[in-house]
Amino acid sequence: FSGRGTWFTDSVGSCGTSFTTDDLIVAMNAPQQGDDGNGNAQCGKHVRIQYNGKSVTAKVVDTCPECAEGSLDLSQAAFKTLAPLGQGVIDITWSF
Predict the structure, then answer these.
(1) Is the pTM for the entire model greater than 0.85?
(2) Are 61 and 15 in contact (CB under 8 A)?
(3) DSSP string of the chain?
(4) C-alpha closest to that of 7 among 70, 76, 60, 83
(5) CA of 53: how far to CAs of 41, 93, 94, in Å?
(6) Could you tell me the CA-to-CA distances from 93 to 26, 30, 43, 49, 62 in Å, in that order?
(7) pLDDT digits (tens, 9 = 90+) for 19-61
(8) Are 67 and 52 in contact (CB under 8 A)?
(9) Other CB atoms within 10 A of residue 13 CB
(10) Cα 76 from chain centroid?
(11) How far apart are CA 92 and CA 12, in angstroms?
């Protein structure tokens, strides 16, 4: 898949899991989050995200309602593995 990678700073996601900005986690875009009865079919799955020759594996713990299909909202730790936080938005590819 491909889309935009952004970062966020919440501490509890739609999957009901607590996390910090140091955890390697992502919020899945709503169209791809799917529906398991409560809209969280991808919770707990891992995705491998790539940008500019770098990659990181992160766990799906939240939903990003404003993210377009193919896009992910990354924790600060996951984003920093790929690019400086100041970059804000990167063009990513990813897979389960």
Answers:
(1) yes
(2) yes
(3) -EEEEEEE--SB-TTS-B--TTS-EEEEEHHHH--SSSS-TTTT-EEEEEETTEEEEEEEEEEETTSPTT-EEEEHHHHHHHS-GGG--EEEEEE-
(4) 76
(5) 29, 11, 12
(6) 14, 17, 19, 6, 19
(7) 999 999 999 999 999 876 667 899 999 999 999 999 999 999 9
(8) no
(9) 22
(10) 10
(11) 24
The two tokens of residue 2 are 């491909």
Per-position b or e across 56-69, b if 16+ CB within 10 A of its CB: bebbbbbbbeebee
Beta bridge pairs of residue 41: none
Q: What are phi and psi of 79, to 5 degrees?
A: -60, -45
